[in-house]
Amino acid sequence: MTNQPISGNDLARFSGPNTFMRLPQASSLEGLDVGIVGVPMDIGTSWRSGTRFGPKQIRSESAMIRPYNLQTGAAPFDSLNVADIGDLAVNTFSLSDSLRIIQDSYREILKHPIIPVAMGGDHSITLPILRAVAEKHGPLALVHVDAHADVNDEMFGERETHGTVFRRANEEGLIDAAHVYQVGLRGTGYTAEDFTEAQGWGFQMWLAPDLWHKSLAGLGAEIRRDIGDRPTYVTYDIDSLDPAFAPGTGTPEIGGLTTPQAMELIRGLRGLNIVGCDMVEVSPPYDPSGNTGLVAANLLFELLCVLPGVTYR
User: Fold this and answer.
1) Count of C-beta atoms within a 10 Å radius of residue 71
2) Could you read off the pLDDT of 241-296 as tens digits, one per residue?
3) How many structural domains comprise the chain?
4) Does residue 2 lie within any of the structural domains?
5) Per-residue pLDDT band at 47 (split at 50, 70, 90)
6) What is the distance between the alpha carbons of residues 56 and 38, in angstroms, rounded to a whole number?
7) Alpha helices (H) in 110-191, listed in sequence order
């Protein structure tokens, strides 16, 4: 018997536990296939703070999501045992210590045959996660949906921030550069080479203007075919979406993806050997309507729907 979200017909959706989709909260990882984990941190961000409140808002806005994806037929809770495993106890006053805590916590999580799904938190959380996941699976294929390439060498003299994640990951051999796919990039840069340098490493990039007014179903399928059965990590920065759809984020950039494009892209990844994923940079203080958290929660559900082992009805 797998865990099921509490039905809105059994307990009103505005009540009950503040867990993702009102799933059970697990104190033990035994028997779980997927663990939803919050990483409430914003000390790695460079502009607007507030992502420490991201996991709480994503959980709150997820209460209306029902367990069956009627558009795709996915029924993730019928075949996977999923639970909310709570928040990591990061160090609010130290970024370096928080990154250590995240990596150590993931090492413990990955001692179990579990797919960790993180709710951030700013994008700096992805580096220690990749360190732990790559220890288990080797260099990873990476699907990175974002407005920014996050390949700076340093920011204010710091080498581990939300804008340096994928340079560090590449330098450390955590990712397979020939199978890194960055989707939705746009905006302005510090230098004219902000994107082209990483292309020289092997990263494949799709700029947002090249995707305007197009379906992304084909792009998702193309990425899936290219990756094959390689262990894959998916990292989704909510600022990949245009601020019209997701204003509550720390570094918004106009001209981004639409929510239908985001859903098409994720659905196109079905069949990948996804060994972990995250949703980052949701900043509730800049989103009084809760819409960004709502979008993030639904996209996390879409990611659950394409994990290995999901049944379709």
Assistant:
1) 10
2) 999 999 999 999 999 999 999 999 999 999 999 999 999 999 999 998 999 999 99
3) 1
4) no
5) confident
6) 8
7) 126-137, 165-171
